[in-house]
Amino acid sequence: MIRGTTIHLSILMLGLVAAMVSACTTGSAPRMVGTGDVVYDRQRLMKIQGAQWNEIQAKFKAGDIKGLAANAEVEAVTSMQIPSLFPEGSLTTQSKAKPEVWERWGEFEATAKNMTIWSERLRDAAQANDQKAVADIMKDYGRVTCGACHTTFRQPQTQR
Amino acid sequence: MTMLLAILLVLGSAMHARAAEPDQLARGKYVFGATGGCGCHTEPKGVLNAGGRKYDGPFGTVYSSNITPDPKAGIGSWTDEQIITAIRLGRRPNGERILPVHPFTSFNGMAEDDLAALVKFLRSVPPASKAAPAKKITIPMFESVFLPAWLMTFASKETPPSAAPVSGVARGEYLVRAVGHCGECHTPRSALTMAVDSSRFLAGNTKKTGPEGQATPNLTPDKGTGLDWNEEQIVTYLQTGNRPDGDVAGGLMGEVIQGTAAGYKDLTKADLQAIARYLKSIPAVKNKIE
After folding, report:
1. Cα dihedral: B254, B257, B262, B267 (round 10)
2. What is the ipTM for the molecules in this complex?
3. For the segment A90-123, what is each residue's pLDDT rounded down to a tens digit?
4. Do A126 and A90 fall within a single domain?
5. A147/B258 Cβ within 8 A
6. What is the pTM of this model?
7. Are both A11 and A63 inside the same structural domain?
8. Which of A14-23, A32-41, B51-60, B220-229 shows the lowest mean pLDDT across its residues?
9. Based on the number of CB atoms within 10 Å of its own CB, is B24 exposed (0-12), middle (13-18) or buried (19 or more)?
10. What CA–CA distance (Å, rounded) separates A137 from B286?
11. Residues of chain A with C-beta less than 8 angstroms from the C-beta of B242
12. Which of A116, A138, A159, B25 is the most buried (most CB within 10 A)?
């Protein structure tokens, strides 16, 4: 009986340890990704997004509607990462972000989410090879996604 | 018979006037868009033209006016002429000066027919009854002594054309200088007097002298420090906010492109091309903006 209890306790302990190890490695606490310099990482991400947007426009001009779906998907996936790249206290001298990011966090998150929604719509329209729908989305895409965020939450660009 | 003809003529004329009204309203909205949507008069996500946006300056704090047709809080009780005087000369009906935060020295170059159409549009939007907060001027005798002296000494004014140019570089110049009032933000200002340096038109401002503490780029075609985009890229930027490098306009420029009820994005391709052509034609000024 005692032996049986010990075995049960051992199994329970093992389970607990496994659960703790699992929580430490894959659990709720986010794993460290990127270079450790979050400002650098988010600027890289924005540059990738800018390059994708350029490619989307070039493909659209060239009539490669289906081809731009992959770029739109990259925009969708990367836009999901945006809020996590703006932790509290990351407004350094290297950053072009405005304090409004953290002062109006809910709005900031919603703007990033909006980019995901628009990017997915663009992806779906492109996959369906629906040129008109793609054109309609692209007419406003830059302003309502990147532009909406840049207008409220980023210092203006001074270089042309 | 003559009498009947006269009546028909009068009726026909009245009907024509009514039919012309929507055209003038549409033109007014277009002009409104060409100003950038008079965005200073609408708080972000706020009520159109209801004012209340805060502007801090060395003189104190002012709030943009309510320019909706509300008779008490807005401009509903003003005559067309009084509204036009405020827009282009910076004077209220009671004679009080409007601070040159309102770009009347640029709007002074707007053609009469564009202003008349703009007034029609301003009268067409829903009235908002909330008055803008009162300004807080911190410099003694600022409005009675300093401002008139400053205006007399430093304020350059555009010359209004008898009619708005309709095409070509002249059209672009009109849209840039007067209606779009691009020089207000993009022409260098003196850090001491905040006077615009017209000899370096559109050569950009540093954070120290730029609007709302923001630097603005050099738009002259100077190689190295100015705008090196081609005409098509300029048109795309004003229409969509998309820059050639994949970035998208933000800040105040993002606001005027987007506009409120209308903005730069709503300009016709022909007008945007005229603007681009004009920007390519102005003298290059070396001025690196950091």
Report:
1. -170
2. 0.72
3. 999 999 999 999 999 999 999 999 999 999 999 9
4. yes
5. yes
6. 0.83
7. no
8. A14-23
9. middle
10. 39
11. 53, 57, 142
12. A138
Do A131 and A102 belong to one domain? yes
A chain contacts of residue B227, beta-carbon cutoff 8 Å: 160
Q: What is residue A7's predicted lDDT score, i.e. its pLDDT?
A: 45
Q: Look at residue A74 and tell me if it is in a domain.
A: yes
What's the pLDDT at B243?
94
Q: What is the mean pLDDT of chain A?
A: 85
Chain B positions touching chain A (beta carbons under 8 Å): 44, 204, 214-219, 226-229, 240-255, 257-258, 265, 289-290
Question: Do A42 and A121 share a domain, yes or no?
Answer: yes
pLDDT of residue A23: 44
Same domain? A17 vs A44: no
A25 and A48 share one domain: no
For residues B104 and B238, give the distance between their C-alpha atoms in angstroms, rounded to a whole number. Answer: 23
- Residue A159 inside a domain? The answer is no
The reply to whether residue B253 touches residue A154, judged by beta carbons under 8 angstroms, is no
Report residue A25's pLDDT band, with 50, 70 and 90 as the boundaries.
very low
What's residue A22's pLDDT? 46
Same domain, A3 and A46: no
Residue B227 to chain A, least CA–CA distance (Å): 6
pLDDT in tens, A128-158: 999 999 999 999 999 999 999 999 999 877 6
How many domains does one find in chain A? 2
Domain range for A1: 1-31
Domain map (residue ranges) of chain B: 21-160, 165-290
Domain assignment present for A110: yes
User: Span B267-274, mean pLDDT?
Assistant: 98
What does the pLDDT read at residue A156? 78
Nearest CA in chain B to A50: B246
Same domain, A58 and A20: no
CATH code where residue A69 lies? 1.20.120.10
Average pLDDT (B239-259) is 93
Judged against a pLDDT cut of 60, whether residue A17 lies above it is answered with: no
Q: List chain A residues with CB under 8 Å of B265.
A: 143
